[in-house]
Structure formats: structure tokens, C-alpha cells
Specification:
alpha/beta, D-Maltodextrin-Binding Protein, domain 2, 5-stranded mixed β-sheet, 4-stranded mixed β-sheet, 18 helices, globular, disordered N terminus, signal, Carbohydrate ABC transporter substrate-binding protein, CUT1 family, transport, Bact_solute-bd_prot1, SBP
Length: 439
């Protein structure tokens, strides 16, 4: 054997050992990966729907139970709370370095959350192909809602449009036809006053000054009167004729006696008790209202009323799910949970038990969901509106959440409940918010 032959043999042996080493490393990595994937992991899920009594909370628990059955190594630890308090609590937890792994954030708070919470973008949770596979199954408008600065930060979970809930029993008692619900705000006012005079019950209530301080209904009214909360350049325009006109209608309902000057929670209780003819809010209360009406009164629904001949232009309410965990194993588990929550079966539960709309592009082709929807025709008006919904507008800057609260507390609530003058009130609040956002 020559020296060259020996070198060749050693080279071949070295190459073979290198290949074996690489194969061993790959096999070990795969084993460790499988072991990590199968290792028990617990993730915390903060959800205001979980904190909702009756069917809303039960629906979230059903989703958790089904997911854990399919993923025995992953435990979901839910944390409830009201919509109003949940975001504040999550902020405090994040500041203390202990946020939940997943948090349900309302669309009206998402821009603020993107600035103030350590959100892990959806694209960072899985491979590009996996993310594309999941997100391509969702409605484009839902994906757009979860984007902040062209980055998907929240997985769409819950979406609804404003719905006019009608107590058909009170309508008939007042001599009104529930099969022909009011189509304009003038008709709503007239029907409400008729209900008051003929039945001695309350007429209508708009969930504009709600406890969560969500402005989705405020924006829907301004949009439908031909305006918008923000100009194309992003400036607040609450003092516009369209905004003043929209909120003047809201105040006039109360001043005329068509709408009681009470808190939103009290109005919900009145409607459930059969003592309120109409209630305008999100379909998130659909399941709860359906349960309350059973055996008491017939529940009907219609879309958001118009301003005269102008088309209704509602925006959406609801929430997305953001991931806040820094731990890779918990992020992987969170991704599995988010993926499950976008499935057909999950949206079936979300629609039937909570009242939000199915957000998959193939929902119409799902026989099980189609059957559910056929049994729940009251959700159809909201679904029809979703096809042409106006995008929600978030006020710009890191103080957007504070600005939204000022809008609701200092403009909407006083005009709706305390008979504040709409033009002067909106002018003052417009200036206040503009200065806040610029600071």
C-alpha cells in the first residue's frame, strides 16, 4: 500500500465518520425535538369571553376542553375578566414581567397593545408556510384587522357587526310588525316611542356608552352618516358635521324619551327581562339574548339602521389573540392553540355558543356550520354586513387607548346620557384628543 493509498483510505474513513456523526446529530436533534414537542406544557390564556357569564364563558371552556383532548401534552389555564379590566390587567402583568402567554385584545385596543405589550408577531411563531396555510383560510378583512403597521400581530378570533335586536312580543303589543323592523333611525325613534306609549315598556337602547368604552358603535354611526373618525391623513375629525349629526341623533333618542338614560348593563338586563323593545349592540350577546328569550319572547334581528337614504356603514367589534410568551415551548403551544381556534369546528362553537361570526373563507361550505346557521337565523344580518364592513379606525400614536377612552367618556356618554350639547362637546373633545395625540 502506498502512502497515497493510505491517505485515501483515511480520507474515506474520515468522510464516513463525518457523515455518521452528522446523521447521529440529526437523529438526536429530531429525538430532542419530538421530546420537546411531546413534553407537558401549560400556557395561560387571558380572555374576557371566558369571564362572561352564561353561554359565552361556557363556549370558551368548550373550546379549551376540545383542544386539550386533541393535545394531551398542552394544558390551557384560562384567566377571565371583563373586557374593560382585562387589557389593563395584562398591561400590569407585562410590566411586572409576568404576562399571560395568550391574551384576547379587543380590536379597539390593538394599536395601543402593539405599542405597549411585548407581542410576538404571528410570523415568528411558525414557518412561513405554516403561517400562510392557516391565515389563507381566514377572511381578508379579518386578517387586516389583526395587522398593525403591516405586520400581523393578532390572530383573528372574534368579529361582529352592530345588530338591531328586536323583541317581537313588544312590537306586536304596540301594534308594530316585527317582520318589518325599522330601517332608519327616524323609524327606530318612532317605533320606540310607540312601544313606550302602548306598552309602558322602554323603547330602544344603543350600546354606544358601554362599560368597555369600545367605540365600534360610535364609529359605525359616524361612518353611516357619511363621515369618519379620522381623515385620510389621520387627523381626528369629531367636530365634522357628519360626526355632530350622528351623535346628535344618539342624544335625541334619549331627550325624546325613546331611549332611557341608563347604564349599558341595566339596558341589557331590561332587554333580557322582556322590558325593552330594541337593543343595538354586537352579536357577542346573541347567545345570551337567545337563552333569555326562550319561553319568554320571540327574538328577531336586523342590520344597523340608516341615516335617511344613506347606506349603513358599520365597522366591526370583537378581538384578536396576541402571544406574549418569551419561552419557545410555550410559543409553540400557543401556536397550536391559535391554529385550533381558526378551525371549522372551533368557529362553529364560537358562532353557536358565543355569537361571533365565522371568519373562515370556507365557512359557507361547512355542512355542520351551515346547519348551525340555519338553526340560528338571527345571526344572518350581521353576517351580511360583514361582507362589506368598514374597517375600524385606530387613533394614531402611543396614547391611542387613552384617546379612545376620552372619546367615550367625555363625548359619547355625556351626549347620550346627560343631554350634553353635541356641537360644543365634540369640538372640545376633538381639540383635547388632537393635543393628546400630538404630545
Amino acid at each position: 500500500m502506498t502512502l497515497l493509498d493510505g491517505r485515501r483510505r483515511r480520507h474515506r474513513l474520515g468522510a464516513a465518520l463525518t457523515v455518521l456523526t452528522l446523521l447521529c446529530v440529526a437523529a438526536c436533534d429530531a429525538a430532542e425535538s419530538d421530546e420537546a414537542t411531546d413534553a407537558p406544557v401549560t400556557i395561560r390564556f387571558a380572555s374576557y369571553n371566558y369571564g362572561t357569564p352564561d353561554l359565552g364563558g361556557q363556549g370558551v371552556q368548550e373550546l379549551i376542553d376540545l383542544f386539550e383532548k386533541e393535545h394531551p401534552n398542552i394544558t390551557i389555564k384560562p384567566e377571565g375578566g371583563t373586557s374593560k379590566e382585562l387589557y389593563t390587567r395584562v398591561q400590569a402583568q407585562a410590566a411586572a414581567g409576568d404576562p399571560p402567554d395568550i391574551a384576547q385584545i379587543g380590536w379597539s385596543k390593538l394599536a395601543s397593545a402593539a405599542d405597549n405589550l411585548p407581542i410576538v408577531p404571528i410570523d415568528d411563531l411558525a414557518s412561513a408556510d405554516e403561517v400562510k396555510t392557516v391565515t389563507s383560510q381566514l377572511l381578508p378583512g379579518a386578517i387586516e384587522a389583526g395587522n398593525v403597521d403591516d405586520k400581523l400581530v393578532a390572530m383573528p378570533f372574534a368579529m361582529s357587526t352592530p345588530t338591531l335586536f328586536v323583541n317581537a312580543k313588544l312590537f306586536r303589543a304596540a301594534g308594530l310588525d316585527p317582520a318589518k323592523p325599522p330601517q332608519t333611525w327616524e323609524e327606530v325613534k318612532a317605533a320606540a316611542l310607540t312601544i313606550r306609549s302602548k306598552t309602558q315598556q322602554q323603547g330602544v337602547y344603543l350600546s354606544a356608552a358601554n362599560a368597555a368604552k369600545s367605540d365600534f358603535l360610535t364609529q359605525s354611526l359616524i361612518n353611516s352618516n357619511g363621515g369618519a373618525l379620522l381623515s385620510e391623513s389621520g387627523d381626528v375629525q369629531l367636530d365634522s358635521p357628519q360626526a355632530v349629526g350622528a351623535l346628535s341623533m344618539l342624544g335625541d333618542l334619549t331627550a325624546s324619551g325613546a331611549q332611557p338614560a341608563i347604564a349599558d348593563d341595566d339596558a341589557i338586563s331590561l332587554f333580557k327581562a322582556g322590558k325593552l323593545g330594541m337593543y343595538v349592540t354586537s352579536t357577542a350577546l346573541m347567545a345570551s339574548f337567545t337563552k333569555a328569550a326562550d319561553g319568554s319572547f320571540e327574538l328577531r334581528t336586523a342590520g344597523l339602521p340608516r341615516f335617511g337614504d344613506q347606506p349603513a356603514r358599520p365597522t366591526y367589534s370583537g378581538a384578536g389573540l396576541v402571544v406574549l410568551s418569551k419561552d419557545k415551548a410555550e410559543q409553540a403551544a400557543a401556536w397550536e392553540f391559535l391554529t385550533f381556534l381558526t378551525s371549522r369546528i372551533a368557529f362553529g362553537i364560537i358562532t353557536e355558543k358565543i355569537g361571533y361570526l365565522p371568519l373562515r373563507t370556507d365557512s359557507a361550505a361547512d355542512p355542520a356550520l351551515a346547519k348551525r346557521l340555519a338553526q340560528q337565523p338571527s345571526i344572518q344580518p350581521a353576517m351580511t354586513q360583514l361582507a362589506d364592513v368598514t374597517p375600524y379606525q385606530s387613533m394614531p400614536g402611543r396614547r391611542s387607548d387613552q384617546a379612545r377612552q376620552i372619546l367615550q367618556d367625555s363625548a359619547v356618554a355625556p351626549i347620550m346620557l346627560d343631554r350634553a350639547d353635541p356641537p360644543s362637546t365634540l369640538a372640545k373633545v376633538d381639540q383635547r384628543i388632537t393635543e393628546l395625540l400630538a404630545s
